[in-house]
């Protein structure tokens, strides 16, 4: 498989190079030159289906045996034999639990595999990289856990001092692997993100330290997520609707790709919180940036969703020049405009959306606890609430699957507020609050952070 940039100016790459480089050098995102059709399956397990679905995307750089080994190891870290089990809520609604990985958020499904892919490709090439990233919570711990102990990778994650929850911080600072470095920055999440960008923009520093990224624009993450959409859809005798709690649009995009490959999915419900730019775009053709408002579902507190670029590229008939132009205008004016016929071709009929605010999120958590005894986290609750609002209007009434993106114990305060029940951490994390922490604090200053990165990763 070859990969092309959504902005049309970067060189075509194979899978391994697209994996390692993340962002294309024209500022675009890599996408496969085509979406291969799903083949009839002989798979019995999640891993077997994962290999069938992903193999066309990774050949010839990874062969079937290598991919199987990487998937076996990645998904052995999940605490459920089904990897992503489906649970029934009522006669029509289901959730697919994506949170049985080591850090209790759906990002593990991709990052447990992508971390191992990095290590494999780097070892083959005799290279090392330093992954740097900024986190406001979930991504950092999932990225750390994905590469902890990998021989060819160091990872440095910047988080804002005092501004992540205790569970989230401890999931980063209690990892004992020597290639893992959690760093508290005296500043905000935006400061952390700016520092990471500045390190990537410092070319001598970037090259000397072989910087790499595993943020949600990395194609391999989207690819790994297509698998559970295929698995969900193939469970039912008729096509499903999927509701997805959405931030950077990576998860929904993975579902759309599964549908392009032939997975029996009627359409998608894009669930947002009060940060509703995607709801305004899908419902009212209004993609205009507003300030980010903190909510009960912090991993969805996003205004500009980076993976929308991949869908835009498709709406533009894969015209990279047009996509680049639109995004330049978007950056300058804060408003994205798309021709009506382009919208109709990709969005209409396939995507619907709803914005669920904090009170509605709490109501939904309470309702599910009453109606089926289940505790759901606030992100998942936006998805089930949106599904209930919109799917009720359908006439065909097929199954609706909501993607459950975090374990309730990751957001215990909101769950307890809604239900009066404090969700317990699963057994493997039960002693998280007693484990010793290892972290370094640094000023929000580029020179100080760069010096620290070099010191921490010095062999
Ligand atoms: C990251 C995250 C999301 C948003 O996923 P995107 O792929 O960015 O849309 C939703 N819920 C949880 C719990 C997350 O960690």
Annotate the secondary structure layout:
Elements: E1 3-5, H1 15-21, E2 30-32, H2 46-58, H3 64-76, E3 86-88, E4 93-97, H4 107-125, E5 129-134, H5 138-147, E6 153-160, H6 166-173, E7 180-186, H7 189-201, H8 203-208, E8 211-212, H9 219-235, E9 240-245, H10 250-260, E10 265-272, H11 277-284, E11 287-288, H12 308-315, H13 320-333, E12 335-336, H14 340-346, E13 351-355, H15 358-372, H16 378-391, E14 400-404, H17 412-419, E15 440-443, H18 446-457
Parallel strand pairs: 4-14, 5-6, 5-8, 6-7, 7-15, 9-10, 9-14, 10-13
Antiparallel strand pairs: 1-2, 3-4, 11-12
The structure holds pyridoxal-5'-phosphate (PLP).
Pyridoxal-5'-phosphate binds at residues 105, 107, 138, 216, 245-251, 299-300, 379, 405-406.
